[in-house]
What does this fold into?
Amino acid sequence: MNVLVIGGAGYIGSHVARFFADRGLKVDVLDNLSTGTRENLFSDCGFFEEDILNYRAIVAIMQRGYDAVVHLAAAKAAGESMIRPEKYAIQNLTGTISILNAACEAKIPRLVFSSSAAIYGEPKYLPIDEAHPKDPANFYGFTKLEIERCLEWYDRLKGLKFAALRYFNAAGYDPEGRVHGLERNPANLVPVIMEVAVGLRPHLEVFGTDYSTPDGSGVRDYIHVTDLAEAHYAALMHLVEEPGSFAVNLGSERGLSVLEILDTARRITGRPIPAVMTGRRPGDPAKLVASSAAAKKLLGWEAKYSDAETIIATSWRAYAQHFAHERERP
Ligand code: WQD
It folds into this structure.
C-alpha cells in the first residue's frame, strides 16, 4: 500500500511515517520543512519538499498513485492562533482544502486527518467522549472542527473516506530512539520541561496552582506519540477494510498534573528543573481527559506507552542525545 504522509517531517508525522514503514507500507513524505526537519526523514521513505498551498505541485505528486493520504501539516499552537488567526486560516483551512481537492483530482480514496481535542473547548463533562459538545475555545480548535465538517461533505459528495483522529496531549519520543528532531520554540509542557532540563530555558513557569485538582495544577491526558502512530495505522487499515468514515478521540484516559509531570522529569533526568509558580494561562481549563472507548471498540486500539515515566524517559533520551551531540561539535 502506498501512503503519502503530509507533514511527515514533523514531530508526530515522522513517528507516523516510521510506524507505517515498519509495517511494510510504501511511505512518501511531503513537507515544506517550515516546522519539520530533514533530521526526521528516513532513508526508506520518499520525500517531496513542497508546500500544501502549491496546488498544482501537490496534485502532480498525488497523481503518482497513492492508496491514502495522512494529513498532519497544520499549525497547532492554540495560543498563537488567537494572536495570528490569519496564519491558521491560511495554513489549516486553505491548506487543507488544497489537500482535499488535490486528493479528489488524483482519485485518492482515503484520508487520515490529524484532528484535536481542541474542537471540544471547555469540558462540560469528563471524560470527554465523541458526543461531547463541540465549542472550540480558540481559533486553532475552530480550524480543526471546520476541517472535520468539510471532510463530511467531501465524503458525501466526492466519496473521500476519512478518519478524523482527535489527539489529546501528544508527548514522548520513539522508544527505539529513531526520531531525533526536536520541536523549535515549543509551547507544550513536556518539551518546555526538557528545554529547562538541558539548560535552554532558566525555569519552567507553572501556569496556575489554584485549580480544583488534587495538587492544584492543570491536569491533561498525555498520549505517547507512538500510541498515536499506531492509532493512525489502525485507522487506515479500518478505512481499507470497512466502508465508513469516522472520528475518534485518542487519549490515554489517564490524567496527569503539571506538578506530577515535573516531579517525574526531575526524577528521571536527575536535573533540578527550576519552576516558578505563576498565574493561570487564559483559556486553560482545570482538567481535560479523554474517553477513548470508541477507538478501542472500532479499532481495537489502546495506549501502551502513555504513562508519565515512558513519556518523560523517551523525551529525555531525545533531548539529552541531541544536546550531547551539540556539545561534541567542534
Ligand atoms: C499542558 C498543561 C498548561 C506549558 C495544547 C493545545 C491543544 C493540543 C495539545 C494540538 C496545561 C501547563 C504548559 C508551560 C505550564 N494541541 N503548562 N507551563 O494547552 O493542554 O493543549 O496542546 O492538538 O490544542 O491547546 O497543552 O502542553 O500547552 O499545556 O504550566 O510552560 O501544562 O497550563 O495545564 P494544552 P500544553
In short: Residues 189-220+254-299+307-328 form a domain with the UDP-galactose 4-epimerase; domain 1 fold (CATH 3.90.25.10).
